[in-house]
Amino acid sequence: MPTEPRKRFSLVELDRSDVVVTMLVAAAVVVGAAVVMVRRVAELLGDGPVPVRVELTGDEVVRAPLGPGGADVTATAGSVVVDVPHLAGLARAAALVEAVAMPTAFAVTAVCLALFCRRVVRGLAFTAATTRLVLVACLATLVAWLVQVGASVVVGGAARSALGGGDPGSGTVFVTAFPLGLLLVAIALGAVAGAMRVGERLQRDTEGLV
Asked: Cα(92)–Cα(113) distance, rounded to whole angstroms?
């Protein structure tokens, strides 16, 4: 007696146009990440001052030309980009690692999610290969977050030393940033991968009953 072909189950209904759009977005992310990486590496390896973003504590009031006709308006700065004349060897190395790792992680995540969508359209959502794509995206995002935090510590300290640090009496002090965005994305991707593992097991059990 001929057996029926195995049917794959997917909770998400996508069509091929969705996959094409996802692939185009992933390609744009990869190209953009490459451009950002090249520009940042050129800044770090150049002879001029290096732009570094630093976080500030206290309410630092600045004047910015944001009013009508370029008029100055009062604003409160939580972070600023400063030109550091020279970054020490360790700080420059940390900045280079961040400049390469962050765009690479974004590109890897975009490609994995695009391939994930393609597999969903093909009815291969709850398979080991699809789950691995989500896990790779999760690990890439987590590594990017760790690199970002580590580079913030090293580069922020070097910027403080190069610029003489903040004046404690003025209430303006450089602090290390602790970004949570990438960490939350990594946690969400890890949760999705865990749910897909459960879906794999349920699909195998269901197929065994047919």
From this structure: 32
Q: In the chain, what is the straight-line distance between the N-terminal and C-terminal CA atoms, in Å?
A: 14
Half-sphere exposure of 190 (CA within 13 A, CB side): 10
- DSSP 8-class letter at 68: G
pTM over the 0.85 mark: no
Each domain of the chain, given as residue ranges in start order, spans 16-52+87-204
Q: 111 and 141 in contact (C-beta within 8 Å)?
A: no
DSSP state for residue 171 in the 8-state scheme = T
CB 112 within 8 A of CB 139: no
- pLDDT for 4 equals 47
Return all residues near 10 (Cβ < 8 A) that are at least 6 apart: 120, 123, 124, 125, 126
